[in-house]
Each structure stands twice: as C-alpha cells, then as structure tokens.
Amino acid sequence: MKRTALTGLFLTAALLASPAFAADDLCDANLQQIKDDLTTGATDMGDDTLMSLKEAQKEAMAAKAAGDNKKCIELTEKALEEADKGEDR
Hints:
Layout: H1 2-40, H2 47-65, H3 69-88
Helix pairs in contact: 1-2, 1-3, 2-3
C-alpha cells in the first residue's frame, strides 16, 4: 500500500512539474529564434521590424529574469508573428 501511494505521489509531482518546464523551454526556444532572426534575417527585414524584435527580445529577457515565463512567451510569440509578417512584405 505504501509503495502504491508513494508511486502515485511521484507521478503526480512529475505531471504537475511538466508544464513549468515546458513553459521555460518555450521561452528559451522563442528567444533563440529571435536571436537567430536578428542574426540571419537582418537583410530581409525593415528597420522597424528589427527595432521591434530587439525591443521584444530585451523585454522578454527581463521577464524571464524576473521569473515571469508567461509574459516571456507572450512577448516572444507576438514578436515572432510580427517578424514573419514583416518578412512577407
């Protein structure tokens, strides 16, 4: 009985912790994508798009440093969408 309860406790803890790690990974992945876009896409993007990406990167890194992964993800997702629109023009 104890073994079953302990196993259940560990499984519950692992399942509850997974979204937190996923959010952190998504924030990091988006920041890396922005960095890559700034490095390789600088010639394809307009000045406004570049400035917008740099500002979003700065704000997202500050949010991540403050432990606000949700805000980091929101900022980076929005910036990446805007960058994609800017490249299509």
